[in-house]
Amino acid sequence: MKLEQRLDAAAITEFLNEVFPGAMEHFTIEAVGPMCSTVRMPFQPWRLRPGGTISGPSLMTLADTGMWVALLAMIGREALSVTSHLDIDFLRKPAPADVIAHTTLHKVGKRLAVGDVLMYSDGEDMPCARSSVTYAIPSSYRG
Amino acid sequence: MKLEQRLDAAAITEFLNEVFPGAMEHFTIEAVGPMCSTVRMPFQPWRLRPGGTISGPSLMTLADTGMWVALLAMIGREALSVTSHLDIDFLRKPAPADVIAHTTLHKVGKRLAVGDVLMYSDGEDMPCARSSVTYAIPSSYRG
Amino acid sequence: MKLEQRLDAAAITEFLNEVFPGAMEHFTIEAVGPMCSTVRMPFQPWRLRPGGTISGPSLMTLADTGMWVALLAMIGREALSVTSHLDIDFLRKPAPADVIAHTTLHKVGKRLAVGDVLMYSDGEDMPCARSSVTYAIPSSYRG
Amino acid sequence: MKLEQRLDAAAITEFLNEVFPGAMEHFTIEAVGPMCSTVRMPFQPWRLRPGGTISGPSLMTLADTGMWVALLAMIGREALSVTSHLDIDFLRKPAPADVIAHTTLHKVGKRLAVGDVLMYSDGEDMPCARSSVTYAIPSSYRG
Q: Are the beta carbons of D50 and C20 separated by less than 8 Å?
């Protein structure tokens, strides 16, 4: 199965605002391509935990969002996929700054999609976290 | 190394309020024992996502909190450990209700602690999510 | 969906010998019950790595086998499931001895099954490794 | 901490043959660079499972080996690190052919190293498996 990109950044944002109002309130899609996405999480003080670093749950939400955007670009508006698995390694303390997530999809099957997400504090060249995420694709999806 | 429990639920809550104000605002420690904890996440409407289920980030935060509480009981107030790895499988849609996390520690070493967390919607007998979490223990900890 | 156990240990061994000759050559099913299994990996010198501990790949194979046995007990002979995800934490050096894997299934859905596996060196009361495993269930399975 | 590469492919193979005879018997180091490695697992019929695909344990061993080689290149001969965590997603059935593992290190700290491994059947442009691996670095290592 050779997939082609179906939605661009504007179409994804529009769709998400429709089906999940508020989901993209704290995220910006910077780029979407075939099997990949770049999503920015602008800095907000409420994301900090003691010590002045971005909280773990914020990074987990960013990983999940980056994967979701990359997947929507490929499967389109047909169906609402749900996260079935997420794992994350916290590598470096993320500074109080924007965090950018680069997602690469490794598989978009009929039932599962799997991708890796690397997250970087703005301006850094080594990631503050890595994540891999699996989405379950509903059976209404025809591929 | 044979560990014994050092802190009870009240001492853990007091310590967390000191070092991380607000961390336990949305969680209740129901029980703490040697190498285990039970933590409740009372239902709040802002935790819902479209479809009326508890959001994934809420469950991830609960898993992390359950593990943190179980670990603090064993290593005490000496040092602030940080999450280094978390993985989670979403198994069933969690109803709009309290979620209870049962954590079992499998290892508390000098440098790493590892545990499993099973999360249940209140009243259900099968888990809505499973998670395993690794904490890095700072080198100031003497065991 | 309320599942009941379909196969006992003897029926599982017979089925595995049929569809995957050799798969159980180095493993013994000690117990199978609803949503759980106990599988023993008898000690063999070729499983050792330098330092005299059981190798990581041996433990990963044991985790996968324990999960497979527990799953077959529930879904029966209908269909050959395949591992889609496995993660493992190595907790303690496993002695040159038998290793026993206790598997608990948390979900057997129409498409995915998820379980946890705890592995113990024979005679030890703390696990040498923990694992969680996901199997993809083929669409021929009717539940 | 800015690390530089300490060992090349020949030095790594020599070291591994010394400390773990046989470890590289079934693997070939194709390339090693700063924070990365490419390791080939030449096809051998005993790696097949029914259905004619490369077995899961073979891929897990390859992931672990790819990470080990990449890490040794950076930390050198000083100390023997051990795997503390490995997770793997099986994405596509690997053909009866060589499998090539591309490892990228995301962190080499004083105590932990974390990397991602993508595995490809020879000639394919999409991976048959993805893995992330964590190694614990012994305290004798000075960085």
A: yes
